[in-house]
Amino acid sequence: MVSLTLDLLNDLNSKYGGSFYILDSDIFRRNCEKLLETFRSYYLKTNIAYSYKTNYIPKLGIIIDSIGGYAEVVSDMELKITKHLGIEPARVIWNGPVKSKKVMEEFLLSGGIVNVDSRHEFSEICEIARHYKDRQISIGLRCNYDIGDGVLSRFGIDVGADEFDEILNNILLIDNINLKSLQAHFAKRHYKYWPAKSEGLLSVYERVTSKFGIYPECIDLGGGLSGEMPRSLREQFGLGDFSLDDYASRSALIFSDYFRGKKDKPWLFIEPGTAVAADCMRYVCRVEAIKEIRGKTIIETNGSQKNISMGSINPPLEVIPISNNNLRFKNADIAGYTCIESDYLYRNYSGKIGVGDYLVFGNCGSYSVVMKPPFIFPNVPILDLSAGKVEEIKRAERFDDIFETYNF
Ligand SMILES: *Cc1c(COP(=O)(O)O)cnc(C)c1O
Fold first, then answer.
1. pLDDT tens for residues 215-234?
2. 364 φ, ψ (degrees, to nearest 5)
3. CB within 6 Å of ligand 1 — which residues?
4. What is the pTM assigned to this prediction?
5. Cα angle vertex 156, ends 152, 161, to 5°?
6. Which helix (H) or strand (E) holds 22?
7. Residues 73, 381: Cα–Cα separation, whole Å
8. Of 156, 101, 107, the residue nearest 135 (C-alpha)
């Protein structure tokens, strides 16, 4: 990771302003490669489909494609990104609860895979298939079952309900619908849920093969993994000591045991977002003012908690001072520029800090740029420093970017 020296930050500040994201796309690539390596050490036929919604910087989509991974999208907006990037539709998986029939039709006819989220969606796909009898349509089923995580997931089709078998019977009746994938995704990130998640999907696979004679080409375990992070973050997330191996040994190993000696093993897919994107971005902002309110030190900045979308935890923070004369503060709260009382980037900071200092927040790559609202200020630029030079990934947003859709 490029070290952010005062000289470099001053230089970036003069060109791009006092607040920006730093991307390190090499870290993203390495994270993906390491994830693949770890899972493949247990089950060779593993691949990844990157979750675009986690961080849809186009360059990340290109990197995934270049290492042979797929794109995982949940909207026609994200689908359009893959089109712009020239990614083959057959390497795109479309999940999510809301899909336009018209866009789905075009996507399915171009070879894309739609993971069906409801019976209604399935019936729309049947209409498309009947209308284009000479075309093959590839679908997956988003499978909903209990993994003991205390969440009643609202996504996909209940594998214990009659409608699940109904859909499979219908797939058998329609020649040109090809059930390519059984997929599940659960949001909780603890690896302790991974055995139940893997065994649950394997038992669906077993039912689909033995009862219906359908052999899906892939079993897709979705996302819900954490990636590398400093100990301080792991502790705040209640994750303890863990590594990617903790996920792989509780999923890919179960697959390799189940399929040992069988031929035509299915592909195992993982849909990582956070695990590969989180630590590839840092967020930089500056101290604007320091004040004291009834004994509490408030450090005001030109950044916001909305930029890092981590609430109620303290992200990794590095203070790059602009002078040697900073005073030391105890339990100071570092606040954002919005007019929301709870907008704090960091609570109870103790150490030297002064007006003008740069604050560098780590692990800002997941659900940050994609979730930042246009509240109070337009968005800041994104700069990739991985190649030893500055690549502007996204320019700073301007007044017009936000207001040109309004009628004045
Ligand atoms: C959000 C999402 C992912 C990625 O989740 P992370 O927890 O960020 O890894 C993967 N698959 C689906 C279907 C999703 O909705």
1. 999 999 999 999 988 899 99
2. -110, 20
3. 51, 53-54, 72, 74, 95, 185, 187, 222-225, 271-275, 366
4. 0.97
5. 80
6. strand 20-23
7. 24
8. 107
